[in-house]
Amino acid sequence: MVAEVEEEEEEAEAEENKINISVNIINNRLKEGEMVNNGFPDYAVPDRQSPEIIPSFSVLKVSDKFVPPKRPDKGGALAIRTVRLLVNHFPVYYDPNTIIGHYDIDIQRESTSRNGRLAKISKSDLCMIREKLFSDCPNDFSMAKTAYDGEKNVFSAIPLPVGTYKVEISDGDDRTTTYNVAIKHVSDLEVSKLEDYFCGKVLSVPRDILQGMDIVMKENPARQMISIAGHFHPWETGPRDDLGGGIAASRGFKNTLKLTSQGLVSCLDYSVLAIRKPLPVIEFLEQHIDGFNIGNFRSFRETVEIVLKGLKVSVTHRRTKQKFLIVGLSDRDTRDIDFDYQDPSGQIPPKRVFLVDYFSEKYGVNIQHLNIPCLDLGKNNKQNFVPMELCVLVEGQRYPKDDLGREAGRTLKSLSLAPPSDRKRIICDMIQASSGPFGGDVSQNFGIQVDANMTRVTGRVIDPPQLKLGSPNGGFSSLVMDPWKCQWNLVDKQVVEGRPIDQWAVLDFTAGDHKKRLYPKQFIPKLIRRCEKLGIHIKRDPHYETAFMHVFRNAHKLRECIDRVITRAREKGMGNLQILICVMSQRDNGYKTLKWICETEMGLVTQCCLSGSANEAKDQYLANLAMKINAKLGGSNVELLERLPRFESAGFVMLIGADVNHPAPHNKTCPSIAAVVATVNWPAATRYAARLRPQEHRKESISKFGEMCLELVDTYAHINGRRPESVLVFRDGVSESQSDMVLNEELLDLKAVFEVANYFPTVTVIVARKRHQTRLFLERGSGNVPPGTVVDTTIIHPFEFDFYLCSHQGIIGTSKPTHYHVVWDEHGFTSDQLQTLIYNLCFTFSRCTKPVSLVPPVYYADLVAYRGRMFQEALIEGLSPASASSSSSARLYSSSSSATDSFDERFYKLHRDLSNEMFFV
């Protein structure tokens, strides 16, 4: 134990030293006068007139922390045209003299559980207790002038009495539970501090005030709608929202407060989620499980338990608002369950009773289904069996969209991807609805009002870049983009650099499926011809083998099958395979295992495809397949004709992308997966190397970020003969409140690791966000905004360097722009330079012939992080470590693994032959 404590202290000291090193580097350069002061205390920006890239720090230091730089100008000016836009930002007006009281509310049961621990109270019960207290004491507590977050915080427009109150809740069964409700004053929130922030008098965001106002605005919809993961949805769904299987599409909204250049705004967007219908449990099972027959329950027991476990139900035999969690099924059927009954009055001695008799005598209910199990609704390891027919699913329980069938998935997608005109109308209706954030009288009682009209802004459409492609004569050709469509095709064109393919094989898993069987004599020659047309030399005689889909689903057999293909290809004189093309009859979870085996154990690049598409062999499909194969093997499909803005005459530059993939919300143990990618070629900046690692569960900050980046820098140096002098980091997946984490944890770690390695490049860090609610609509017209649309006025941050860029052509639904926010800048970017750089990069994504919606370093990092999640799922679904074979160095796995095994970095470590290749595209 002492050793463990000492290790923790040493790690903490090392981490602190790394931070101090970085802070000292920055402070020393500040003292040495490397920067030009712009009038703010301790604030410095680079000399933007200098044509050279110099070490400079556009960062403001507040206390011991750094905050993002100010906007370097009044926004960009480059444009081929402008567009008038409407944005779903609704100005919020408030009285700056308002004081909002913040109170802590602590609710505990008066009696503890048997083990002496305080049992956790559900959020729905907490709200019910709060409502009971307020209804019992209306003179002290006003529902109309308070807002509750459902957990620990109450915000009030009037002073509240503090102290401890007793609240009794009846369970509808002649029993009451007493709760102690302690109310304590935390602080008085002065709304005037928002004005101080907008005016620049204070530099830190008044998040406590924003939190209070946000809860106030969510109080009305929280009372009238269902809250699902921060979204608000109606209690009922319509007939056309039915997705089948007891699942429905629920159409609601999500609302957030934002600080912008025009002041405080409410950003509201339309939201569609798949939810379970509030049906009686047995009816739900009949709809949800194919062929379910309650008369033959034993055949479906395992499926039923999987479907129901973790869901919430209410009961029909008692008058109660309580909600219960299903923890499992009873071992015995309902007719056979008995228990010791204790009379509440204590006048009758304990006796053994059958559950069926108890419900008949106590509630007058005759149980119909006697030969099926009961639901176990117990808490704290205490069983509580209730007949299934007396339970109803609670409304608003989210259903994973990935678990939907094909047709249901399409229906949900069509409802979610509303075209711009429909989405705009729905949003405007929701902001004015009586159940919306400004309906009712709560927000008005806090002096808050909203302008129900969308914000008007002018967007700029910037010019697309010229691209470089290959030509049949062996040279290069330039492509001038149509600024309206921003798409190109590969008819009579070639890739910039086609990687020759001499050793390849096709593994056909469709042998047992006559309807979906691959026709190799059609597919393989057509793929070869398409590759040749694109300038990718490919050998005309690949090794071909067949297998069955059941092999694809078995880790042991799959490993043996791939080994056999590799061995036989070598026997034919092919040497090491460059790529293995795997053809499947349908999508299958075995895909995860295939990728895990090939990319961590074998070092083999794979390309999967479906037999249906392969047999059709359409030209566009084959071209897309060829582009992916070429990129995976180190080729280059398309490049920018000119260098990136700001780096036209610079030395070597590296682009880094970083992202973290978290496990599903219901998963409480599996690690998060951190991925970092970086370019290894300059000035093309089209080839990326990747690193991925598991880290602490749901931790957003990337552990060992600097170490991962330094590995990629060393790879860059090995390929190019020198380290990059400039580094651009694009960080994905962080919220606005987590920018500080990127700046003061990840960046400091990066600087400290670089310092130890005697490496001092100039660094700029940009956060790219897609998880926001901001939408852009054409003021006139019904389509999406054109690609290249930039907005960097009005709806952006009051003074920090950020902008919205819609870089892609929206075909389906309403385009969502990406929000780019600069949190550190040592290169002195202007708005035009950075916006053009990012937009140009969006044309270089390796598997598209059009610009993508997210800058490629981040897009690739997201793909790599998702690949790491697939590795982890393959492990959990049936892989655990075993001894390696002496002949093949293969690790074969059994199904005995646990979630904790998946923290082992060995399972995620890429094979050395692939660690610097784009296997993930």
Automatic annotation (TrEMBL):
InterPro entries (alphabetical): ArgoL1 (IPR014811), ArgoL2 (IPR032472), Argonaute_Mid_dom (IPR032473), Argonaute_N (IPR032474), PAZ_dom (IPR003100), PAZ_dom_sf (IPR036085), Piwi (IPR003165), Piwi_ago-like (IPR045246)
Pfam families reported for this sequence: ArgoL2 (PF16488), ArgoMid (PF16487), ArgoN (PF16486), PAZ (PF02170), Piwi (PF02171)
Domain of life: Eukaryota
A Gene Ontology BP annotation from the UniProt entry: regulatory ncRNA-mediated gene silencing
The Piwi domain, residue ranges: 579-873
Membrane spanning residue stretches: none
Domain PAZ: 280-395
Keywords of this entry: Repressor, Ribonucleoprotein, RNA-binding, RNA-mediated gene silencing, Translation regulation
UniProt cross-references to CDD domains, sorted A to Z: PAZ_argonaute_like (cd02846), Piwi_ago-like (cd04657)
GO CC annotation, single: ribonucleoprotein complex
Record GO terms (molecular function): RNA binding
SUPFAM superfamilies per the UniProt record, alphabetical: PAZ domain, Ribonuclease H-like
Family the UniProt entry places it in: Belongs to the argonaute family. Ago subfamily.
Name listed for the protein in its UniProt record: Piwi domain
